[in-house]
Design a protein that fits this description.
Blueprint (H helix, E strand, L loop, with lengths): L1 E5 L3 H12 L3 E5 L3 H8 L10 H8 L4 E4 L2 H6 L3 E4 L14 H14 L6 E5 L7 H14 L7 E5 L9 H6 L4 E5 L2 H9 L8 E4 L1 H32 L3 H9 L20 H14 L5 H24 L7 E5 L15 H10 L3 E5 L4 H4 L7 E2 L3 H5 L4 E4 L4 H4 L12 E4 L12 E4 L3
C-alpha cells in the first residue's frame, strides 16, 4: 500500500520505516529540512535499536522523506498522523500539532479524486479524532468523512529502545474507525500479523492507549509505594514482587521498585488522563496518587543520601544514568533531572555519566561535570547515585575503589554490594 507518515519523530520514524520494511511505499513528511535530509540519507533522527539498519535498507527506495504535503497526499492512499502531543503547563494535552496536521491534510484532500484514509497514530485524549480531526478534515476539504474519505485511530504501543521489535512483534493491534471501509483498509496493513487485532470506534481506541499507559504507570508507583514500606520493615521488596509477579493475573512486568517512571509517554499520558477526567467533573484520586508517588521517589533517594552525608555542601556526587531508561538517549521526564536539581540545591558538585544521553542532558544542566566513563565519574566522589538501569552499572566493581568515601545509593537495584568495599543502600530495599 502507499502510505504517508506525517511527522518524523519517534513514532513517525519507526512506523514509516517498519511499514516500508513490510513492502509498502512510504513517504514521510516533516517541516524540518534537516530531518528530511537525514531520513533520505538513511540516518534516523532518533536512536532506536535496529532502526538505522532498516532505514538504510529502504531510504531512497520504497521510503522517501519530503517537506511537500501535496506530493505526499497525492501519491498515497492512507496517511498516519504521528505528530507530538505535549502537555501544557496544567498537564492537559496540547493538540495544536494535531490540528495543524489535520488542516494540512484536509487542504490536499480537496482536489483528490480517490478515497483516502487519515489515521491518527499520535496519542490523543478520547474524542480527539471524532471531535477535532474529522471536523477539521471536513472543513478544509469540503468533503464528508465516511463517504469521500475515511478517518481512523491506530494507537502505538512501542517501548523506547525496543520500538522496532515491538512494531514487528506486537502483543495486539488496535484499529479504531467510525466506518467499516476505513477500518478494513487499516486492518489490511497488518494482514501478516498473528497477534489479536481489536476493532473499536475511534474514541475507544484512544482510551485503550491511555489506560494501558496509566495501568503500567500505576504498577510502577504501586511497586515503589510497597518498596518504601518494605525498606522500613527490613524486607526485600524484590523478593516480595518476585512472589507477587508469579501470579498469572499480575505478571512480573513493571514491578521493579526504584526511582520511578519517566519518558515521553507515562508522565504525559497520565497527566492528560487526569486533565480529561477533570473536564467531565471526575476526581481521579488513584491516578493523581500515581503521579505523586513518582514525584516523591527522587526526594526519598536524596533523604537516604543525607543519612550518610548530612551536609552535602561541597560534596562530590557521581550520578550514573541520565536517560529515563536504558537502551535510549531520551531524557524526557528522566528521574535524573529532579535528582540532579536537588543535589545542586543542597550545594553538591555533580559529575554525571550516561553511555548515550549526556549530550541531551547538557542542554538541561550545562554547568555540571560529564564523564566519559562510569569510572571517571566515580573518581574522587564522596557518593554515587544510580538513576538508570544500564547493564554496565551491574558490572562495576573495582571502579568503586576510585571513590573518596564509597557511598552508593542505588535507585535501580543494579549493584550487588556483596564482596565490594562500599557503603550501599537501595532506594526501596
Amino acid at each position: 500500500m502507499r502510505i504517508s507518515i506525517i511527522g518524523t519523530g519517534y513514532v513517525g520514524t519507526v512506523t514509516g520505516t517498519c511499514f516500508a520494511h513490510l513492502g509498502n511505499e512510504v513517504i514521510c513528511v516533516d517541516v524540518d529540512p534537516s530531518r528530511v535530509e537525514r531520513m533520505n540519507a538513511g540516518i534516523p533522527p532518533i536512536y532506536e535499536e535496529g532502526l538505522e539498519q532498516l532505514l538504510r535498507e529502504h531510504a531512497g527506495k520504497n521510503l522517501k522523506a519530503t517537506l511537500d504535503y501535496d506530493t505526499a497526499i497525492a501519491n498515497t492512499d492512507i496517511s498516519f498522523i504521528c505528530v507530538p502531543t505535549p502537555s501544557d503547563e496544567n498537564g492537559k494535552i496540547d493538540l495544536r500539532f494535531i490540528r495543524e496536521a489535520s488542516r494540512s491534510i484536509g487542504r490536499r484532500l480537496k482536489d483528490k479524486k480517490s478515497y483516502h484514509v487519515v489515521v491518527v497514530k499520535s496519542t490523543v485524549v478520547p474524542g480527539t479524532t471524532e471531535q477535532i480531526v474529522t471536523p477539521v478534515l471536513e472543513e478544509e476539504s469540503g468533503k464528508k468523512a465516511g463517504k469521500d474519505f475515511g478517518v481512523g485511530m491506530n494507537p502505538e504501543f512501542l517501548r523506547e529502545g525496543k520500538a522496532v521489535h515491538d512494531f514487528q512483534h506486537p502483543d495486539r493491534i488496535v484499529v479504531g474507525a467510525d466506518d467499516p471501509k476505513a477500518a478494513g483498509i487499516i486492518k489490511s496493513l497488518y494482514a501478516g500479523y498473528s497477534c489479536p487485532i481489536l476493532e473499536a470506534d475511534t474514541k475507544t481506541a484512544e482510551m485503550i492507549k491511555y489506560v494501558s499507559n496509566a495501568f503500567l504507570a500505576t504498577k510502577i508507583s504501586f511497586s515503589n509505594e510497597v518498596g518504601n514500606i518494605c525498606k522500613r520493615l527490613g524486607i526485600d521488596t524484590y523478593k516480595v514482587m518476585e512472589g507477587v509477579g508469579l501470579d498469572a493475573r499480575i505478571s512480573p512486568h513493571f514491578l521493579r521498585s526504584g526511582l520511578g517512571f519517566g519518558g515521553s509517554c507515562f508522565p504525559k499520558d497520565v497527566k492528560a488522563l487526569v486533565g480529561k477526567a477533570s473536564e467531565v467533573d471526575y476526581e481521579p484520586v488513584l491516578l493523581k496518587t500515581v503521579l505523586a508517588v513518582n514525584d516523591k521517589q527522587p526526594e526519598i533517594a536524596l533523604r537516604i543520601l543525607k543519612k550518610h552525608i548530612p551536609d552535602l555542601r561541597g560534596a562530590r556526587v557521581a550520578v550514573l544514568g541520565l536517560a529515563f531508561k536504558d537502551d535510549t538517549d531520551d531524557i524526557r521526564e528522566s528521574r535524573a533531572i529532579p535528582l540532579i536539581g536537588m543535589l545542586l540545591a543542597e550545594g553538591a558538585t555533580v559529575t554525571a555519566y550516561d553511555p548515550m544521553a549526556a549530550e541531551f542532558m547538557k542542554k538541561v544542566y550545562p554547568a555540571i561535570g560529564y564523564a566519559k566513563t562510569a569510572g571517571d565519574a566515580l573518581d574522587g566522589a564522596d557518593a554515587c547515585m544510580i538513576a538508570t538501569e544500564w547493564g554496565e552499572f551491574a558490572r562495576l566493581n573495582g571502579e568503586f575503589a576510585r571513590m573518596k568515601r564509597r557511598i552508593v545509593i542505588d535507585g535501580r537495584r543494579m549493584v550487588d554490594p556483596r564482596g565490594k568495599d562500599i557503603v550501599y543502600e537501595g532506594l526501596c530495599w
